[in-house]
Amino acid sequence: MRNYRFRLYPTKRIEQKLEETLDGCRWLYNYFCDKNMSEFDMNYVLVELKIQHPWLYNYHSKMLQMVGKQLTAARRALRTSGVTRNRSSRLYQKKHEDFNSFTYNQTGFRIKGDELWLSKIGLIKIILHRRLINIKQVTVVRNAGKWYALVTCDKKQIFHFINPRKSVGIDAGITKFVHDSENHGFENPQFLNQMIKPLRRSQRRLSRRIKGSHNYTKAKKRMVDLHSKIKNKRNDFLHKLSTYYSERYDIIFLERLRILNMVKNHRFARLILDAGWGTFKIMLKYKAKKLVEVEPAYTSVDCSRCGHSVPKELAVRMHRCDVCGLTLDRDYNAALNILQRGLRAACLPQDLREVTPVENNDWSMKQEAYDFSQGQLTNPYSIKTLR
Ligand SMILES: [Zn+2]
């Protein structure tokens, strides 16, 4: 099963209907919320409820049943996580802003051309950026005032031929987002830094407003907008980057756990970055033919040629080995280590790739920021060793 997200552009009238549907589902959710019923019982009671509340007939019946499924899943999640996290073991009634999705399963939907048809709701313009087959489910999601369709497709596992020669090691950075074993680096996109100031400002503004006031709502909206803007930009960047790697390489090696020992970095920047890394891994996991996570210990310390340990401060950007004389960018060295370890762990020959580091100190780098103006990552070789 695979989920794809598409942007929806409902008309005013349809949007009204979507909102009403959310309210209807929320009413049902809250009705069943504190009654500990099985999914079967809820479906049974739903039939009775419809007679008492005929307005429920305005909604697709299977869609209403999915609310019961949603509750059952939420209860199950509470049962499994509630004990360890010491949280309360009951579900709470959902307010308007907390209830943001409803689901059509198997029936009641159709996607044709650039339109999504939902039973009892109507036609909605959908931006289909990929072909879909075997659609099992459509979930409509409201997120920061925008509408999306989460489409679940049943995909049979496709068999891939993997060429171990086409493998790459990727090192995660802070100053650079990634640096790989082919000595290509990708800068942290500029929008990160650009967004931090407005984000802090809007956070400050929100904290000064009186909770529940009109100005509070306005400030809150502004903040939600900013967050979703950052998220969209980040996802766009991550999608392009993960596509770049999964199209070029058959095996991708990453560090298993990336412990950020950067303390000075700004809190917001770190939050955005950390979230970015998790997402990047998830994207690679489903896009790449094979993603292998490598034990992270000493990848930036050891020499990638002779294995000699060269401890260095975080500020030291170069790796210089006293034993074999290897001199190269520290992130490049780390990426080479990741690749070598990965190949070793996967029992693949290590000399698949020739390591040709730059030997002299006369060394320069060309760095360019990520270009957003084009539809795709236009400058993949954004950091080049010139000599
Ligand atoms: Zn060495």
**Could you tell me the radius of gyration in angstroms?**
26 Å
What class do helices, strands and sheet pairing give?
alpha+beta
Low-confidence stretches: 352-387
Shape: elongated
State the end-to-end distance: 47 Å
What is the number of independent domains?
Answer: 2
Strand content: 15-25%
Number of DSSP E strands = 16
Describe the sheet with the most strands: 7 strands, antiparallel
Walk me through the structure.
The protein has about 375 residues and is an alpha+beta fold. It folds into 2 domains: about 1-155, no CATH class; about 165-385, no CATH class. The protein contains 7 helices and 16 strands. The chain has helices spanning about 10-35, 40-50, 60-85, 190-210, 215-250, 265-285, 330-345; strands at about 1-10, 100-105, 110, 115-120, 120-125, 135-145, 145-155, 165-170, 175-180, 185, 250-255, 290-295, 320, 325-330, 365, 385. Strands 2-6-7-1-5-4-3 form a 7-stranded antiparallel beta sheet. A 5-stranded mixed beta sheet has the order 10-9-8-11-12, sandwiched between helices. It has a two-stranded antiparallel ribbon with strand order 13-14. The longest helix is centred in the middle third of the chain and has 35 residues, at about 215-250. The radius of gyration is 26 Å and the shape is elongated. The structure holds zinc ion (ZN). Zinc ion (ZN) binds near residues 303, 306, 308, 323 and 324.
Please outline what is shown here.
This protein is an alpha+beta fold and about 375 residues long. Helix content is about 40%, strand content about 20%.
Secondary structure layout:
Blueprint: E1 2-9, H1 12-33, H2 39-52, H3 61-85, E2 101-105, E3 109-112, E4 115-118, E5 122-126, E6 135-143, E7 146-153, E8 167-172, E9 176-180, E10 185-187, H4 191-208, H5 214-248, E11 251-255, H6 267-287, E12 290-294, E13 318-320, E14 327-329, H7 330-345, E15 365-367, E16 383-385
Parallel strand pairs: 8-11, 11-12
Antiparallel strand pairs: 1-5, 1-7, 2-6, 3-4, 4-5, 6-7, 8-9, 9-10, 13-14, 15-16
Bound molecules: zinc ion (ZN).
